Amino acid sequence: MLRHIVMMKFNEKGKAENGAEKIKEMLLGLLETVKPLKKMEVGLSDFENNIFGLVLTADFEDEAGLNIYRAHPDHIKILSYMQEVVEQTAAVDYYVEA
Q1: Is residue 70 domain-resident?
Q2: Nearest to 4 by CA among 32, 35, 47, 42
Q3: Domain-embedded: residue 4
Q4: Of 23, 36, 44, 51, which sits with the fewest C-beta atoms within 10 Å of its C-beta?
Q5: CA nearest to 11, candidates 87, 89, 94, 97
Q6: How far is CA 89 from CA 10, 33, 42, 56, 86, in A?
Q7: Among residues 68, 94, 81, which one has the least CA distance to residue 8?
Q8: pTM above 0.90?
Q9: What letter does residue 54 receive in the DSSP assignment?
């Protein structure tokens, strides 16, 4: 199984508009529309010491599934919104034992 983890740091607009909540809702909606997406968790942090305000963990069978997710029109919409409210992201993909 391939695990995809993304962390997001929000800019001032994102904080003011509660961008983390909106992105969380949008991401969780992908569970219904992106077939290769096996599991997803989205966590929000309101701890002042944390640099990143949102972390996404998504599981796929393989890299082909992740690539379908990346190219899916609903995911592209989220990326477009992120450009407005996210200052920085960090991501990592790795295989885990099922």
Answers
A1: yes
A2: 42
A3: no
A4: 51
A5: 87
A6: 9, 23, 14, 11, 7
A7: 81
A8: yes
A9: E
The pLDDT value recorded for residue 98 is 65
Return the biggest CA–CA distance within the chain. 40
Give me the domain span that covers residue 61. 20-88
Asked if 75 contacts 60 with a C-beta cutoff of 8 angstroms, the reply is no
Closest-CA residue to 64 (of 28, 85, 26, 35): 35
Residue 65: Cβ within 10 Å count:
20
pLDDT of 49 strictly over 90? no
Residue 34 lies in a domain: yes
Phi, psi at 35, each rounded to 5°:
-60, -40
| Amino acid of residue 91 | A
Tell whether the model's pLDDT for residue 45 goes beyond 70: yes
The pLDDT of residue 47 is above 90: no
> What is the separation, in whole angstroms, between the first and last Cα of the chain?
6
Mean pLDDT of 69-81: 98
